[in-house]
Design brief:
It is a single chain. By secondary structure, the protein is mostly helical. It is built from 8 helices and no strands. It has helices at residues 3-22, 28-51, 54-74, 87-101, 105-115, 118-142, 149-175, 178-202.
């Protein structure tokens, strides 16, 4: 109840921080394909959140993203571009994970990085996350979550580190080739999956 609203608040600032300097690179056709799927996924995520145990969801997410990351790193020969049909599952599951865990962007990254140049993929993903966070931020604000002063103070304390991370990440992606960038993202996804599984097993 506290962490997810905090993540949404930081995601909102981060997404617009990435979007503003690169908004002209946004691929509108891909954005329009993913947005309806993301909306459906958010709705499903809320339903699952209210009806499933959170520890089971944590395990399922960890297993899913770890399996995909291992597949991506292991299999060398695969299509260089995903079909537009993949917008449906990637957008829907990404929206669902965003509602459940505050983080579904890795699925958008997988889809967009396979279809777009690096800058266009990053800009389009920032646009998607911006749309998602606006909706969730509005709902949390209406519910009065952000009336909690300590939560806002914590967000302000975390902002400098987030801004530094945005600056460093942007410089890093500009220096890497597309292949190296995708591989780095995949390793980060795998590390996240393993951490989630470890967290489930430690509870």
């Amino acid at each position: 109840s506290k962490i997810v609203p905090l993540l949404v608040l930081l995601d909102f600032v981060a997404a617009f921080g990435n979007l503003l300097p690169s908004r002209r690179d946004v691929a509108k056709p891909e954005l329009l394909r993913l947005l309806p799927c993301m909306a459906v996924g958010c709705t499903l995520g809320v339903i699952f959140l209210l009806n499933l145990k959170s520890d089971l969801l944590l395990l399922l997410m960890g297993l899913f993203i770890s399996a995909y990351a291992i597949y991506s790193l292991w299999v060398k020969t695969r299509p260089t571009q995903l079909s537009v049909v993949w917008a449906l599952p990637m957008g829907t599951v990404g929206g669902m994970f965003g509602a459940l865990f505050g983080s579904g962007g890795f699925l958008y990254a997988i889809y967009l990085n396979s279809r777009l140049p690096k800058e266009a993929a990053r800009a389009t993903q920032s646009a998607l996350i911006s749309c998602s966070t606006v909706v969730r931020l509005s709902l949390f604000a209406i519910a009065g979550v952000y009336a909690d002063l300590p939560l806002l103070v914590l967000a302000v304390c975390l902002l400098p580190a987030m801004v530094l991370g945005l600056w460093f990440g942007r410089r890093l992606t500009l220096r890497l080739s597309r292949e190296a960038f995708v591989r780095l993202v995949t390793w980060l996804v795998l590390a996240s999956g393993i951490a989630l599984i470890g967290r489930y097993l430690s509870t």
